[in-house]
Design brief:
The protein is α/β, with parallel strands linked by helices. It is built from 15 helices and 17 strands. The chain folds into 2 domains: 231 residues, Carbamate kinase; 140 residues, 2-Layer Sandwich (VC0802-like), CATH 3.30.2130.10. A hairpin with a 3-residue loop joins strand 13 and strand 14.
Length: 455
């Protein structure tokens, strides 16, 4: 059994859905379970509808509802026109959901207040709609597909908009609901991202981008032999191809390496969302639904050891330095320092210390002012905005050899503000000027992969 997840761009319209059907047809013998996202962009539009309605802009919200209805019905018409009875059924089902959405929008206008619970009621419609449409299209393409309401399987707690999956309940439900369909030689199709609260059954969501998480949880619950994440890129690359001209596909990457890359700026699948599967030893593939025969990237717990697997970078980073003579020879200073960050719910990316100062970088500067005020109780604070981070990631980076010196040589005369090697030894991070992030990535890529240059 395998789990195949199709992201928003991979089910964005009729032709994408037909490509997905062909991908599943080829995998029929492997007993696929299908998880789909909302049609690309639909969730954003639904969230806007909710915000506009609660903000009193009902006319704009209803206009957006009709545009979404139109989009779904048009694609249904293209996909299902060969079977008018099915088309009528599915269009009716989709339309009923849009009527419900319009009613929710009006109720929100009256209430004037958007609770996380009502936001989930609306945001979850994208996957409810797409899964109904995809099932009907799959059937018309000869696949024995059955719709499964994701809320029967994805049991969560009641933290709306970021609900926590309840793994035992999900395992039980997946075995009870999905397995009989698979055993009957049929293909279950369910929406990602959405779930229902244990006990009450109220609709929840796992947080934005949550469909990968759904796929991973289902894969783990069914002990699938593999999980395929179908998206619109070839897989994970050695660098962002919009920055580095010669970026290459990574065929196989370690889970830890992928996690480091994602948190240091690589715009790829966030590996934490697939952790439930990877940590159980289930291989996860990232594949391009536009090029179904590409090799894709395989994310596994164990990966080949390489000095450098990829280079990531991000700008818009803030560097904070706290200098305090009190730090010298005292215990507990670090704790008080990091408590400040915790209190302001700001996560720290890179840390370096000297005898009397600590430097950290943060990505999210929304609570910066309050944060600095509190840090000033600990010492002198200086703040440098518009810095950037470049990370060189490889699980064999510190195995000896020359990777480290080659990296520093490649950075050359670019000014380095901070340097940090993670203790796991797989991530060398340098802090540079925000404007130098791209040149630094290009130089490093050139040094390690023989191809750099401006994309
Ligand atoms: N449709 C949801 C979102 O856009 C979940 C997903 O696509 O992963 O956030
Ligand atoms: Mg997504």
């Amino acid at each position: 059994m395998i789990v195949c997840k199709f992201g928003g761009t991979s089910v964005a319209d009729a032709s994408a859905i037909v490509r997905a059907a062909a991908i599943i047809a080829q995998r029929r013998a492997r007993m696929p379970v299908v998880v789909v996202s909302a049609l690309g962009g639909a969730t954003n539009q639904l969230v806007q509808v909710a915000e506009q309605s609660a903000g009193g802009q009902l006319i704009g919200a209803l206009r957006a509802v009709e545009a979404l209805r139109d989009r779904h019905l048009t694609q249904a018409d293209i996909l299902l026109r060969d079977d008018p009875a099915v088309l009528a059924d599915v269009s009716g089902e989709l339309s009923a959901m849009f009527d419900e959405l319009a009613a929710l929008a009006e109720a929100l206008r009256t209430l004037g207040d958007l609770t996380p619970r009502s936001l989930d009621a609306i945001a979850s419609l994208g996957e409810q709609l797409s899964s109904v449409l995809v099932v009907a299209a799959f059937r018309l393409h000869g696949l024995a597909a059955d719709h499964v309401d994701a809320r029967e399987v994805m049991i969560t707690d009641s933290q709306f908009t970021r609900a926590e999956p309840q793994v035992d309940a999900i395992t039980e439900a997946a075995q009870r609901v999905l397995m009989p369909i698979v055993r009957a030689g049929r293909i279950p199709v369910m929406g990602g991202f959405i779930g229902s609260a244990q006990g009450t059954g109220v609709t929840t969501t796992l947080g934005r981008g949550g469909s990968d998480y759904s796929a991973s949880l289902v894969g783990a619950a069914l002990q699938a032999e593999a999980i395929e994440i179908w998206t619109d890129v070839d897989g994970m690359l050695t660098a962002d191809p919009r920055v580095v001209a010669g970026a290459q596909l990574i065929e196989r990457i370690g889970f830890e390496e992928a996690s480091e890359l994602a948190s240091f700026g690589a715009k790829v699948l966030h590996p934490n969302t697939i952790a439930p599967a990877v940590t159980r030893g289930i291989p996860v593939w990232v594949l391009n639904s536009g090029k179904p025969h590409g090799s894709g990237t395989l994310i596994t717990f164990e990966a080949p050891r390489r000095p450098v697997t990829a280079i990531a970078g991000k700008s818009g980073v803030t560097l904070l330095k706290v200098r305090s003579p009190r730090m010298l020879l005292t215990e507990g200073f670090m704790r008080s320092l990091f408590e400040v960050f915790e209190r302001h719910r700001t996560s720290v990316d890179v840390v370096a210390t000297s005898e009397v100062s600590v430097s950290v970088t943060i990505d999210d500067a929304t609570r910066l002012e309050a944060l600095v005020v509190d840090l000033q109780t600990l010492g002198d604070v200086t703040m440098e905005r518009n810095r950037g981070i470049v990370s060189i990631v490889g699980n064999g980076l510190s195995d000896g050899g020359s990777a480290m010196s080659r990296a520093l040589e490649a950075i050359g005369d670019l000014r380095v503000y901070m340097l940090s090697l993670s203790s796991s030894g797989i991530n060398l991070t340098v802090v540079v000027d925000g404007a130098q992030v791209h040149p630094a990535m290009q130089r490093l890529h050139e040094a390690f992969f023989g191809q750099g240059g401006d994309a």
